[in-house]
Amino acid sequence: MYRWLLLILLVMLLGLQYRLWFGEANLRQVWQLEDKILEQREINQQLAERNKRLEAEVQDLKQGLSALEERARSEMGMVRKGETFFQLIEPEPENPRR
User: Fold this and answer.
1) DSSP tag of 81
2) Cα-only R_g, the chain
3) Name one GO cellular component term (predicted).
4) For 14-72, what is each residue's pLDDT tens digit?
5) CA 58, CA 46: separation in Å to the nearest integer?
6) DSSP class of 23
7) Within 13 Å, how many C-alpha atoms sit on residue 60's CB side?
8) In whole angstroms, what is the distance from residue 93 CA to residue 98 CA?
9) Count of CB atoms situated within 10 Å of the CB of 23
């Protein structure tokens, strides 16, 4: 009697272990998904920080002229009246084959 009960419990234990390691949604898949979740959280954090910076820039553009002026100068090359624009050109490197 005890031998059969022990055998049944052992078979059930092996069946559960099989499902745990090799069945649908096994431990390896769970670990991989946890790693993907951590990666996605890092990406989300980076994107949230970028969104905060963009929101601050938008607010600055709406409220102040200094950000707008800085952007016009750096992206469009604009200068104020009475200012002189200087452009520095770096020399090309000499050709070593000559």
Assistant:
1) T
2) 33
3) cell septum
4) 887 777 777 777 778 888 999 999 999 999 999 999 999 999 888 877 887 777 777 78
5) 18
6) S
7) 12
8) 12
9) 13
Q: Which amino acid is at 86?
A: F
Q: pTM here?
A: 0.47
CA angle 55–57–58, rounded 5-degree value: 65
d(CA 89, CA 24): 64
Other beta carbons within 10 Å of 26: 13
59-87 burial code (b ≥16 CB/10 A, e <16): eeeeeeeebeeeeeeeeeeeeeeeeeeee
Q: Supply 9's token pair.
A: 């419990």
